[in-house]
Design goal:
seven-stranded mixed beta sheet, alpha/beta, globular
Length: about 170
């Protein structure tokens, strides 16, 4: 299927255990990968350390050799990462690695209670392949509406997601 600009873009929710590296699920259980309109990838990780920042660019592209390396790999190979914040307030940071300067990687740390609700919802939606309009009005819809517009994405990706200033939600 070809991607095209639409507010009702295709969404896929996948179990992160088999989406990133061989053995990823063993060292990082509870992760998810979301694909939005075939072009934007979102990692939902149970943690993303803020120190050291940024996570080192992946040296190993085959196996999850450690939890830290696996988390860094998931961050560096997706457009957006969502992780729980240790504080009540969230935080946002963006990185462009010298090894891949054409791609930006934006991390959002969200409050723990909101993150836990998102993970419960993603577990229920795991293997969902449908449209944004088919999503329940919950945490994933909130993340798509409230976080994605603030991610550093290429102009092409922003166009395909209809992320103009006037576009905030599909509902």
């Amino acid at each position: 299927m070809k991607e095209y600009p639409t507010l009702n873009h295709p969404i896929e929710v996948r179990d992160g255990a088999t989406e990133f590296l061989d053995g990823f699920g063993a060292v990082v259980p509870g992760a998810f990968r979301i694909v939005v309109n075939h072009v934007v990838t979102v990692a939902v990780l149970p943690e993303l350390p803020v120190s050291p920042w940024p996570p080192p660019f992946p040296a190993n592209w085959d196996d999850a050799v450690s939890r830290e390396a696996a988390l860094g790999f998931a961050f560096a190979t997706t457009d957006v990462t969502i992780a729980p914040s240790a504080a009540e307030q969230g935080d946002t940071r963006t990185v462009r690695y010298a090894e891949a300067p054409e791609s930006a990687h934006t991390a959002f740390w969200i409050p723990g209670d909101r993150f836990r609700a998102l993970v419960v919802e993603l577990a229920e939606l795991c293997e969902y392949r449908g449209t944004r309009a088919g999503l329940p009005a919950g945490q994933l819809e909130w993340a798509l509406a409230e976080l994605l517009p603030h991610a550093e994405l290429s102009d092409d990706k922003r166009t395909l997601l209809c992320l103009g200033a006037e576009v905030k939600s599909t509902k």
